[in-house]
Amino acid sequence: MLKKMVDNRDQRSLAVQFRRRRFAFFQSLLSHLERPVRILDVGGIETYWKMMELNAGDQVFITLLNLTQTAVSFPNVTSIAGDARAIMAEDASFDVVFSNSVIEHVGTYQDQLQMSKEVRRVGKRYFVQTPNKYFPLEPHFLFPLFQFLPINIRVLLLQNFRLGWFSKTPDKVKAREIVETIRLLDKREFLSLFPNAQIYEEKIFGMTKSFVAYEGWGE
């Protein structure tokens, strides 16, 4: 059990390292834009931007979009409530739409397609990341090949064990709801959502851990 806890901490630490590397890539793109810059972070949290050391004097203003409005304290950050599939904003009203590990949570493929359309509609450019379905370690439950197991097996495992970011959930209905909220994408599906995007692949040990779709940066 102790080994498992250590392993989970290591996996979370690795996830933070990937986020920092990804953010460094994002910053390299962002550095070429004229200030001020308005960013819509779909599904984001304020602590992410603090962790990435957003500079209050950099004239970068973040709007967090989530199903419910959240409290914020950073002067450059605001929060609004809304649905990623129907964003209440005018066309091209944000300089950048940013989204980190969210599109796999919005529902069916049609829901994901609707989110991608909204991202492309309201942003002059975008930067959207999602885990690779075919990476062997499922990134939410931190269980090898979890995404390929029959759903009843996945539910049973969550009913009996703490898995990754999720606590042990004995209630079968609730455990099934959690399992069904995640629909991972492979590269082909991700490209179908963002057909004109460039794809950046994050790799570990030669395997693609996740994808970033980005477009409109004038490279």
- Runs with pLDDT <50, length 5+? 1-6
**Global geometry:** globular
Sheet with the most strands?
7 strands, mixed
Helix vs. strand class: alpha/beta
Q: Give the strand order, joined by hyphens, for the main sheet.
A: 3-2-1-4-5-7-6
Q: How confident is the prediction overall: mean pLDDT?
A: 91
The ordered string of helix (H) and strand (E) elements is HEHEEEHEHHHEE
The total beta strand count reads: 7
The second-level CATH architecture of the largest domain is 3-Layer(aba) Sandwich
> How far is the N terminus from the C terminus?
48 Å
Number of domains: 2
Radius of gyration: 18 Å
Strand residue content: 15-25%
CATH class of the largest domain: Alpha Beta
Oligomer: single chain
CATH homology superfamily of the largest domain: Vaccinia Virus protein VP39
Helix count, DSSP H or I runs of 4 or more residues:
6
And the CATH topology of the largest domain? Rossmann fold
**Helicity, as a percent range:** 25-40%
